[in-house]
Amino acid sequence: MKIYTRTGDKGQTSLIGGRVRKDDIRVEAYGTIDELNAFVGQAAAEAARHEELKDLAELLVDIMQELFDCGSDLAYASPGAPLKVTEEAAARLEAMIDQYTEEAPEITRFILPGGSSVSALLHVCRTVCRRAERRVVTLAAEHPANPEVQKYLNRLSDFFFAAARAANAKLDVPDTDYVRSAEVFRKKSK
User: Fold this and answer.
1) Which CA distances in Å does 13 have to 8, 44, 68?
2) How do strand 111-112 and strand 18-21 relate by DSSP bridges?
3) Which of 14, 39, 89, 129 can bridge 157 by disulfide, Cβ–Cβ 3.0-4.6 Å?
4) How much is the pLDDT for 6?
5) Would you say residue 15 has pLDDT above 70?
């Protein structure tokens, strides 16, 4: 099998059910998800190097599968195909967000991305995820798109934030406060 096809040499690419320009908003949306997936793969590889983060590494591989589902759902030129991303995907993320939030110390101020290398990579994932979400919002305003993909990406960026903080906590690396931040998060009542 040859990797190159030459069919895109003039700036067009195939969707499921049609062809569009390579800078079409649909291609931009699932292309940004593909970019995110590459960063998640990097974060998973880095997490796998730490015994304390093996569960996170495995979870990130599952998320990569779900991101492929997101891209697949967005690759349809017209509605009507069976969709892969359902509301259960976002619900699973919510449970993981809650778990990782409990594993990290409380915060009252904004934090800077970083600490451990795993945490830094998860913050990169968070920001690319937000960009992917923005691209999906634009797509959905102009064309049919699975609304569960947008919901999933919204939760996923929160997941990356919680996981980045939990990774630092598990590796005994403190988060770095944004020193000019006011106290913006409420402390948990006991």
Assistant:
1) 5, 30, 18
2) unpaired
3) 129
4) 74
5) no
Determine the Cα–Cα distance for residues 185 and 131; give it in Å rounded to an integer.
24
As a whole number of angstroms, the distance between CA 20 and CA 32 comes to 16
Burial class (CB in 10 A: 0-12, 13-18, 19+), 132: buried
The 10s digit of each residue's pLDDT in 153-183 is 999 999 999 999 999 999 999 999 999 988 8
- Give dist(CA 97, CA 103) in Å, integer: 10
Q: Is 76 left (phi over 0), alpha (psi -120 to 50) or beta?
A: beta
Domains of the chain (ranges; CATH) run 12-177 (1.20.1200.10)
Handedness of CA 49, 126, 183, 108 (dihedral sign): negative
pLDDT digits (tens, 9 = 90+) for 115-142: 999 999 999 999 999 999 999 999 999 9
Angle, nearest 10°, between helix axes 25-47 and 54-74?
170
The alpha-helical segments, DSSP class H, found in the chain are: 25-47, 54-74, 87-103, 117-142, 147-170
Identify whether the C-beta of residue 20 lies closer than 8 Å to the C-beta of residue 27: yes
